[in-house]
Specification:
Number of strands: 14
Number of domains: 2
Helix content: 55-70%
CATH superfamily of the largest domain: ABC transporter type 1, transmembrane domain
Distance between the termini: 71 Å
Number of helices: 23
Mean pLDDT: 77
Length: about 675
């Protein structure tokens, strides 16, 4: 048997975490129910009415046995029969109304939670997404949010219903016969035993199930998207991935089996205790009937109410476990909502209509490694977050192990999106902190200063890992500098609203991303109110309109997952058209066309030259023609700006740029001329 064998299902674990219900978190969870308070009140009133109606049938049964049948009273028999029919009908109708209010509240809460979670994730920095598996986020948005919804609309309502039933049944039982009621209460302390023995283990298994499910979802997301499936097939790793998935699925399976067995043991113990109480009442009640102190109908009715007492009591005994396990879902949602946002907008941030496009970097230093001087970067991904405040599985463990090897999905380094080999750009520098102690930090940029005047073309060149991509990430505030500042028109970027930056800065990245939607929808993502004429003009400028017009469905053609139905050149030209439609004042682009055929490269190059006209442009240049057209060339090496100037000046210096020209650009120029 997996995980310690059969004995693991029934042994008492002294090391299990103690039952804990955090009142602040409980109050925070209940705040999501506050907008629906009147519907919740209506639902609770209906619960009370339904419960009270369910208490009547045993009394009718007693009247039937003790009065109607012995007295042969047909009228009384008819009324009792009508009551037996009317009560379930009324209970059913009230149940429908209760279900309506319950579903309205539950679905409202799940919608509010999902929206809050999605909005918070949308405002997270790029650093967060480079360190968090998408499948884990999907698990939080779906499984955990649904668990939180069940906690409000089901768990708490059920507990309220059980309390009403228990109290009402006890009142009626005391009125029927107080001595039998006291006798039935003798076994009540025994109901604490199963909760003490099994409650904490069930909670731990529920948390384990949630974590294992999120890990399995993460793996499915990685391997079942187009890029992941292509990678698996190209490297012939289908068998390995199936085995990895089987391993994770087995873990989920055994967690489910353990949970089922614990619950079975719990209900078995509770049933035995209830049976003991019922047997005692039957025996003593039977003796009372024989002695003539009680009627048969009274004993029958009393035993019916006995079930109404023991059933809710069993549920309430397990209430602490139910609430705490239900709150696990809220806790997993809240830990995402509580993640600090690294890129924040100031309360008094300014909005700018049209900017001139004057860009300035002042002694900018940046590292992808989180630190105290990087606001909000201390917890850059979900793997860094302690999963459960009361301890247990999880904690601040950034790396996961499978079979002695680091598992895929564990965070080894904090790297920029698109960086090679998962390694951060820049050198590993050793510096002294304020106390004089040596501190190691891998800097992507170090003391970089330059200025791009409105309308200028600035070309970024340098070897791989020099920091070129990092500069393009800092300008639209995908990250903030660790030291120094970046300004636009003399105003620090952090003083602008994020909407202003997004509207004034356009990016064309090397890896083009398109939504699985129509070409029209992907283009209008840049400017929702654009007309068809403006969209067509942008596509003509990007040299892609003729291709789109030749498609059977034209602009309504669906591009497929990540745009895989289109070629690389076609995707990149659509991306260029999207930026043209946005009409930004500042342009940031990666001019990578090495993977494209010569015709696509020529079309893209012509489109880029057209889009750069009259705009301040920062270009990671791969073509000599772009470098020659640049107003200023910035040469980076190991995160530092080592050279700047025009083409001729840099060649005359005989430094890094001259070396790059001899090894890369001269041959590229010859190919262009040919």
């Amino acid at each position: 048997m997996h995980d310690g064998g059969w004995w693991a299902f029934i042994r008492y674990d002294e090391q299990s975490d103690k039952p804990a219900i955090s009142m602040p978190m409980l109050r925070r969870a209940l705040r999501y129910a506050h907008p629906y308070r009147w519907k919740i009140i209506a639902m609770l009133v209906l619960v009370i009415a339904t419960t009270l109606l369910s208490l009547i049938p045993p009394l009718l049964t007693r009247d039937l046995i003790d009065n109607a049948l012995p007295q042969k009273d047909v009228r009384r028999l008819a009324l009792i029969s009508l009551g037996m029919l009317a009560i379930p009908l009324a209970t059913g109708l009230l149940g429908l109304a209760q279900r309506y209010f319950g579903s309205t509240v539950g679905e409202g809460i799940i919608s509010d939670l999902r929206t809050a979670l999605f909005a918070h994730l949308q405002n997270m920095s790029l650093r967060f997404f480079t360190n968090t598996r998408t499948g884990e986020l999907m698990s939080r948005l779906n499984n955990d949010v649904q668990g939180a919804q069940r906690a409000v609309s089901s768990t708490f309502v059920d507990l309220f219903s059980q309390v009403v039933t228990l109290v009402s049944a006890l009142i009626i039982m005391l009125r029927i016969d107080w001595r039998l009621t006291l006798l039935a209460a003798v076994v009540l302390p025994l109901f604490l035993i199963p909760a003490r023995l099994l409650g904490k283990r069930v909670r731990a298994v529920v948390r384990e199930q949630m974590t294992l499910n999120s890990e399995m979802n993460a793996m499915m997301n990685e391997t079942l998207n187009v890029s992941g499936a292509l990678l698996v097939k190209l490297f012939g790793r289908t068998g390995m991935e199936i085995e990895r998935f089987r391993t994770r699925a087995q873990r989920v399976r055994w967690a489910g089996v353990k949970n089922a067995m614990y619950m079975r043991w719990f209900f078995l113990t509770v049933s035995l205790i209830s049976a003991v109480g019922t047997v005692v009442v039957y025996f003593v009640g039977g003796l009372s009937v024989i002695q003539g102190s009680l009627t048969i109908g009274t004993v029958v009715a009393f035993t019916a109410y006995l079930g109404m007492m023991y059933g809710p009591l069993s549920a309430l005994t397990n209430a602490r476990m139910d609430i705490s396990t239900s709150l696990v879902s809220f806790e997993r949602v809240f830990e995402v909502l509580d993640l600090p946002q690294e890129i924040q907008e100031k309360a008094d941030a300014m909005a700018a209509g049209q900017v001139a496009g004057h860009v300035r970097f002042d002694n900018v230093s940046f590292s992808y490694e989180p630190g105290e001087n990087v606001p909000g970067a201390a917890a850059v991904g979900l793997a860094e977050v302690s999963r459960f405040s009361w301890g247990g599985r999880g904690g601040n463990v950034p790396l996961s192990q499978e079979g002695g090897k680091l598992s895929r999905g564990a965070r080894e380094t904090t790297a920029p999106a698109g960086s090679q080999n998962g390694d951060p750009e820049g050198p590993l520098l050793v510096e002294r902190d304020d106390t004089g102690e040596l501190q190691e930090r891998r800097w992507a940029l170090r003391d970089v200063s330059f200025e791009a005047k409105p309308g200028q073309l600035v070309a970024l060149v340098g070897p791989s890992g020099a920091g070129k991509t990092t500069i393009t990430y800092l300008l639209p505030r995908l990250y903030d500098p660790v030291q120094g500042g970046v300004s636009m028109d003399g105003v620090d970027l952090r003083d602008y609203t994020l909407e202003t930056l997004a509207s004034q800065i356009g990016m064309v990245t090397q890896e083009t991303y398109l939504f699985n939607d129509t070409i029209r929808a992907n283009l209008l993502y840049a400017r929702d109110g654009a007309t068809d004429a403006e969209m067509v003009a942008a596509c003509r400028a990007a040299n892609i309109h003729d291709f789109i017009a030749g498609l059977p469905e034209g602009y309504d053609t669906v591009v497929g997952n990540r745009g895989y139905r289109l070629s690389g050149g076609e995707k990149q030209r659509i991306a260029i058209a999207r930026v043209i439609l946005k009409d930004p004042r500042i342009l940031v682009l990666d001019e990578a066309t090495s993977s494209l055929d010569s015709q696509s490269e020529a079309l893209i190059q012509e489109a880029l030259e057209r889009i750069m006209q009259g705009r301040t442009s920062l270009v990671i240049a791969h073509r000599l023609s772009t470098i020659l057209a640049a107003d200023m060339i910035l040469v980076l090496e190991k995160g530092r700006l080592v050279e700047r100037g025009a083409h001729g000046e840099l060649l005359a210096q005989g430094g890094l740029y001259a070396n790059l020209y001899e090894t890369q650009f001269r041959h590229a120029r010859a190919a262009e001329v040919a």
